[in-house]
Amino acid sequence: MTKPCIICVAITGSVPRKKDNPAVPVTISEQIESTHAAYEAGAAICHAHVRNADETPSSDPEKFAALKEGVEKHCPGMIVQLSTGGRSGAGTERGGMLSLRPDMASLSVGSNNFPTRVYENPPDLVDWLAAEMRKYDVKPEIEAFDLSHIHQAVALNRDGRIPGKLYIQFVMGVKNAMPVDRDVFDYYVKTVNRLAPDASWCAAGVGAGQVTVSEWAIAAGGHTRTGLEDNVRWDKDTLAPSNAALVTRTAEICARYDRPVATPAQARAILGLRPYPS
């Protein structure tokens, strides 16, 4: 198989703290440095959250702007994907950074359980976020925590609320949500191919299932995500040394399956994004 594989690095997230792994980048400068190393290791997409000084999650557009500027300066062509995830804010706060016109932003189109709460994505908020992404020419990455989220993304695509070709990410391994399950993964792929045959898809394994899900995705011809947001460990006994190390391991899996790692330019073409520089 010679199809390039896009590697997304989820650098920080909203949950991991320095006490969990000192390598988690929290300040803007740490995030830029960590992203640059991951970019050099083969990551084409940076999936980014921002934090406050006390490490709590933030939705501050100024922090996102500083991070976006730094990544664009030090990682030419890398796709900047900002998170609209619900741990960082409530309601429309979650989309306050979309006016920055990042290349992409995450979009959850349905609700589901998280480890200690419900991840709420009511239809009116989903519609508002999708409209803001259309307004600012931001491509959504659909984060599918459940099979129904794939169906909903297809419905939103068919009626024009999400224009263009879909990019759907299967998220597996979040406690109280969809576990890492091979039959479910295979059915996700089958469902996307049936309902949206021109869509691209990727998969992210959270926690101990990170490498397993990445390997499934790479072997099946999809794209994948790694990074300290999803998994702070290298194995059950060792902390992951860096985001770059996790990207390097993912690139090595790509090599085993004869999948070249997509360059940022190739990833932009695959996803139908603005060329760099735009």
Topology:
Elements: E1 7-10, H1 28-41, E2 45-48, E3 50-51, E4 57-58, H2 61-74, E5 79-82, E6 104-107, E7 112-113, E8 118-119, H3 123-135, E9 139-144, H4 147-158, E10 167-172, H5 182-195, E11 200-205, H6 210-219, E12 223-226, E13 233-235, E14 238-239, H7 243-256, H8 264-271
Parallel strand pairs: 1-2, 1-12, 2-5, 5-6, 6-9, 9-10, 10-11, 11-12
Antiparallel strand pairs: 3-4, 7-8, 13-14
Helix pairs in contact: 1-2, 1-7, 4-5
Protein architecture, described:
A hairpin with a 2-residue loop joins strand 13 (233-235) and strand 14 (238-239). Helix 1 (28-41) runs parallel beside helix 2. The radius of gyration is 17 Å and the shape is globular. 36% of the residues lie in helices and 18% in strands. The chain is built from 8 helices and 14 strands. The protein has a single domain (7-271), classed as TIM Barrel (Alpha-Beta Barrel). The strands form 4 sheets. It has an 8-stranded parallel beta barrel, surrounded by 8 helices. It has a two-stranded antiparallel sheet with strand order 3-4. The protein is an alpha/beta fold. The longest helix has 14 residues, at 28-41. It has helices at residues 28-41, 61-74, 123-135, 147-158, 182-195, 210-219, 243-256, 264-271; strands at 7-10, 45-48, 50-51, 57-58, 79-82, 104-107, 112-113, 118-119, 139-144, 167-172, 200-205, 223-226, 233-235, 238-239.
